[in-house]
Amino acid sequence: MNPSAPDPSHRFINRRRFLGQASCAAVGSASLISSLLNLRLLGDLSAAEAPESEDYRALVCVFLAGGNDSFNMLAPVDPTGYAEFATARGSVAPPLANYLPLPGQLPDGRSLGVHNSMPRLASLYTEGKAAFVANVGTLVEPTDLASYSNGSVKLPLGLFSHSDQQMHWQSSLPDSPAPGTGWAGRMADLLDELNDGGPVSMNVSLGGVNLFQCGTEIIPFAIGKSGAVELSYWNSGSYIPRRAAMESIMDAQYNNIFQRAFANMKRQAVSGNADFKTALAAGTPITTPFTAANDLSAQLQMVAKTIGARNELGKTRQTFFVTMGGWDLHGSLEANHPALLGALNTAISEFQDAITAMGIDQQVTLFSASDFARTLSSNGSGTDHAWGGNQFVIGGAVKGGQIYGTYPELALGSVLDTGRGRLIPTTSVDQYFADLALWMGVSPSNLPLILPNLHRFHDPAAGPSLGFL
Amino acid sequence: MSEIWSRLHPGAVAFADSDGDGASDFLESIAGTDPFDSQSLLRITSVETLRDPAVVKFHWQAVNGKRYAIDGLDPQDGGWTELETLISTETGPASLQLPIADPSAIFRLRVGDIDADGDGLTAWEEALLGLSDASPASSTSSGRPDFSTAFRRLEGEGDLTLSDGRAIPKRLPTRTEAVRFLAQSSFGADEDLIVRVTDIGIGAWLDEQLNPTVTTNTYAAMTGNGAITPSIYPYQWSRGWWRAAMTGPDQVRQRMGYALSQILVVSCSGNDFIRQSAPTQAVYYDILLSQSLGNYRQLLEKVSYSTQMGFYLSHLRNRRSDPALNRFPDENYAREIMQLFTIGLWELNPDGSRKLDDSGQPIPTYDNTTIMEMAKVFTGLSFGGTATTFFTPVNTAAYLIPMKMWDEEHEPGEKILFGETVIPAGQTGAKDISDALDILCAHPNTAPFLSRQLIQRFTASHPSPDYIRRVSQVWENNGSGVSGDLKAVMEAILMDPEARNPATDGDIAGKIREPYLRTVALMRAFKARNSRTPPTFPVVTQNFPTILGQQPLWAPSVFNFYSPDYRPVGELRAQGITAPELEIATASRMIETDNFLQRVIDRGMDPFTTAAADILHLDFTTALALSSDSSALVDYLDELLTWGTLSPSTRSAVTAAVNAQPSPELKVETAVHLIIESPDFVVLK
What we know:
The complex is a heterodimer. Chain A is α/β, with parallel strands linked by helices. Chain A has helices at residues 11-28, 32-43, 70-73, 79-89, 119-126, 145-150, 162-171, 183-191, 240-251, 257-282, 295-308, 310-313, 333-357, 429-440, 447-450; strands spanning 57-64, 74-76, 99-101, 112-115, 130-137, 203-205, 221-222, 317-324, 364-370, 389-394, 403-405, 427-428. In chain A, α1 packs across α2 (32-43), α9 (240-251) crosses α10 and α11 (295-308) packs parallel to α13. Chain A starts with 10 loop residues before the first helix and ends in a 19-residue tail after the last helix. In chain A, strands 1, 5, 6, 7, 8, 9, 10, 11 and 12 form a nine-stranded mixed sheet that branches. The radius of gyration of chain B is 29 Å and the shape is globular. In chain B, α5 (175-185) packs across α27 (630-642). Helix content of chain B is 39%, strand content 10%. The interface between A and B is large, with 87 and 86 residues.
């Protein structure tokens, strides 16, 4: 397979060749991606049965790197539920008064509240524009405490480790030791046909190079918060000789693979940034405020600007990756976690305002992801790595005001507790991502190409798994 | 062709047959024969046939250390089958015999090299040097890997007498060889270092560097660098780092310290205690420097007790468990000391590849039970100094000294690691930690896991399994039975055939140089200084992580700036080739790095303050003198920056741009900038 970046002028030819090669490769190779693509060819040749192309859709992944203690973000607030929570969490349990109660009850009678450092998230929930997915996490196959303990199920590789769980959240392939692609990358490989091409990828990252958005053909365009940058000597008269020389250096042939990679990447960086700059200058300006000192706000402001330039970039489908760090609170959880939640709340609030002002809040969905939640029990001043946790989804298209999945029992030693309150997820990331992918326009028959493990938890042909979109 | 053979026979030309004996010089190099002596070549001198039993016996003149084989031809398919082999242990008559089965048969005698001990030297070379192909470290006198011993013997002035009495000329490195070696081993070549290496040789210079008489520490470099009170400006440690890197004579020691700072990661990013105190940063980095040519076990202990690591991975004030409160020991340090600082997640072979179980799956090195047990080991540490209890509040002076074990907060009871290794109950906390560090350092994973990452920092983005195995062997045993000897490991990395022979690994050889080190190398190549007396190095911009993706002690997390396993999408990923440094090469950073370096070249390094006297200017005196002759200018820069390997296409692009510039300054700035940003400079191969 030739994975070098497509020349935009030949993209359809490249795509056909790519698919052709992939199906050939499947004959002799058991590699995951080639067998997936083979499946695609057999199963559904009319892949572009997606919605009308003018119906823009964007997915924004907010990755909370380090493992958000999401049982403090979304906690039981009824007397019995809170008491169970407070006992398990010990010194890291926030007081009941620090929660904003959410309307409604869980089927088991408990009611939940959002930490009061996130008032906008609570109000979006109440307005029906935000939902939570409870106790979701990486799973290879359905797992309970008995099968976990006796080793009869396959478990995610490197369970409880940051690097591995981030990889699994981004790839949705927790049984692969080195997944080459992320699920948004695989999705983009399918959906990019709906776009007009151009050097700027449909997958744009403000969080650096990431696995989530890497496909076989599509790779993320990774930019900084300030957006497009250009070489300072590119358009300046006296520097024209330098530009010409740099272009020929980037375009030269190199025998060494690292030299080749560097030259190609730089060439793409230069042309992508040039296109991006032009598009942003012509796009819809963002008029609503963003807090410059809030790093995530600044990232999301650039996301909003990029969405504002979607027509100029020729995109009807885009994904965005933004990251926020600092969540690995083994210590000082009480002091630092509310501030992180507060900054997160500000950023998503400002983003929602910007998207709503553009009139496209039905077409943009933001969702959270994180390595894992943390042990319910404390280590004195913080909490340690765990497994299943709570995530939120925000947007006009979200069937909000509801908790999807099963909010777990929080007593230590419960039927989900593998020790210290490391809870086995009751919803797999595959199920979470399936609903997002379907909303983006992936057909049910194509879902297994993006989420090959989904069938172990949910029949892909049945449509949405959780139903929040 | 073997370097030794070439020096034995100066004037030999691979595809010529200098002595007209029918064997080309290249074939004679394989046979170890003399290309200028028509009587010296591989040929069968006689064939005997004997009865009872019926055998055919071939005679020839063998060369010590060569491997000979008699092949038989299958007349049906024309294929050759190896029938008998001999590894010659002396030069002189040799023979092999075969039973005769058929009345007629066709045989051939074939010669080749072997490297049974995998040390990068052939048995023929080892025999001539008095070494053995049975062990990669066969020289009892040097205590070094054989390749390193051989490399040093061939370097110098005068002749080297080989074990068979013949002599070959030694030689000293060329300037381009020196620049290439310095790019691997130092913060970058400058004229002084080039002269020193070409004067005394790579081996002798490395000896000086591995036993430095002057050792730099960044704390002194920082506080001695102007009148600024370091604690006021958290970014001031950078001044010390730059001063040490730019002027410190202990370059190899510092490069190893910097490499270790990317394994034993402590970061200002996300940690207020460390970010807000420049002295704290200096103290931690100097721990790494102090042991960078010492022993990893001792370094790991210092790191484990360092207050900075205690802050960063939160085992400072980690308390024993209290079941009544559902309180358990903090698992953070326990996890990362295993996953990142010693053994990694997966069981490894000595060549760094993952071991696989019967179903082809990688095998985890530990489970979560071991994490929880290890977490108990790292309880009881809190501030030392004037503190009188585990909980005594302290002033910032206590940040600068090691943590102290407070046994009353250390978890009692035994700790069982890996399901079988028991740290017994009733020990002090310090003894528990010592035992745990011993166990981790003795784990068979530690050597390959860390050897691979260190190789990646110096010489190869994607080291071969053989390279990892060779370095890993030295990590396991430095020749004197000591494991984790970083001085020996440093030597093994730099004096490996894969590092010293540029062409060993074809087009996957070499490494992407880190953007931060590319910047330092540029500054060193042109001795960047400001106008203060003595010069200072106020390189304290806060933007390096944004522009370059890097700054010492500024990794975004304990997982460093990039993963050792990172494979960029495209050709590299398709071929499974790692290129860690490309993980931070985002579209925006590639542009910003170029712009930043251009500004440095054209105007100097902008400091945090704007005083003109602080700006570090590159000294282009030599280049300016050559600027009227673009060819001479590019030759000079090619030698200084790209060790004479500038590709023809880059050379012609640079030359054209230089010729199009009007002034000497613009010519030089243009040439330097284009070369610095070319793949020729970025990839060290």
